[in-house]
Predict the structure.
Amino acid sequence: MYRNFKVVPNIIFGRGSFNQLDDIISQQRVAEGSYILFLVDDVFKGSDLEKRIPVKEKDLVLWINVDDEPKTVYIDELTQKARDYSSINPCGVIGIGGGSSLDIGKAVSLMLANPGSSTEYQGWDLIKNPAVYHVGIPTLSGTGAEASRTAILTGPEKKLGINSDFTVFDQIVLDPELVAGAPADQRFYTGMDCYIHCVESLQGTYLNAFSRAYGDKALDLCREVFLGDDSEADLEADDKLMMASFFGGMSIAYSQVGACHALSYGLSFVLGLHHGIGCCIAFDYLDDFYPEGVNEFRIMAERHNIELPRNLTSGMDDEKMEKMITVALGLDPLWENCLGPDWKNIMTRERTKELYMKM
Ligand code: NAD
Ligand code: ZN
């Protein structure tokens, strides 16, 4: 059976396209008393962007903090804040920020329309009711969260997304101007998330012409951005990386990520590392899995003066190590994509531990 997958129906791309947000959402403001809920990364508090958010009288702006990656308790808390604010649902939820904020936007728009806690929906196709109309506006490029059908959340038991067709944004606004102020190291880590998506997709057993078409293009764009001529205007690099992120997301949507992502989930769950940096740390030890990709990654890291943290697992107690291994090996499709159906015989707990011990 081939998967019949949902894509974002409306996309705007271009410098300054954020200015069209007012027009776009005004079409949603039809019902009497309706309001828009803006969920905005608090890094933008007091910034020029804040002044440009088209907030109307009845709207609610919630500043969100992503020092920790999105947790289910945080989603439930934000959903409750919106419910306390009004007895009716907003006519739109707008998520503005990096991958964490986009996922928060997706998850809150789903939870406003579905009962219970977000923990109950971590998994595949557990959502029953369509989400509130939701818009994603990335301010970092690389995760592909703008394109995907998942909102990745850390719950008490697991780090797992709310995967459903209803999760997909109704609209995305891709404005490369919004990424301009991102710190260089964060830009690199999130950009490498895209690079790694492409390597894992293109070398996976799930590969098909659809995923290859998007993955090849996204990989080329990453190379232009991170290995290209230094004289190339930065402006164009931001445009390219934004498209690479979207294409990388489309590539994995019809295939899967692999070993690096599985291991990075363990690192995030136990050590609280953010996704981009966690992927970079894990990837650096995966020569046996992705030799060419890892080699090229190191050249890019050196070129951008990136010093990865080391010795993260030294002195870690057994319980944490075992948890990390369990989280990583719990991601069956990722390992199957990487190593084929026989992966359990290849990727043993011992081998996983050996890799983690090096990090
Ligand atoms: P992020 O959203 O976690 O943000 C990282 C840091 O950058 C934060 O401190 C944030 O405040 C800051 N930041 C964001 N934009 C900025 C800007 N323009 N200027 C200055 N600072 C800025 O980073 P990310 O790497 O984009 O996202 C990682 C998250 O995405 C993780 O939670 C991960 O689970 C999720 N993710 C989701 C998917 C998906 O398909 N849904 C895929 C991959 C990753
Ligand atoms: Zn990723």
About this structure: The domain at 11-179 is CATH 3.40.50.1970 (Rossmann fold). The chain has two domains: 11-179, 184-358.
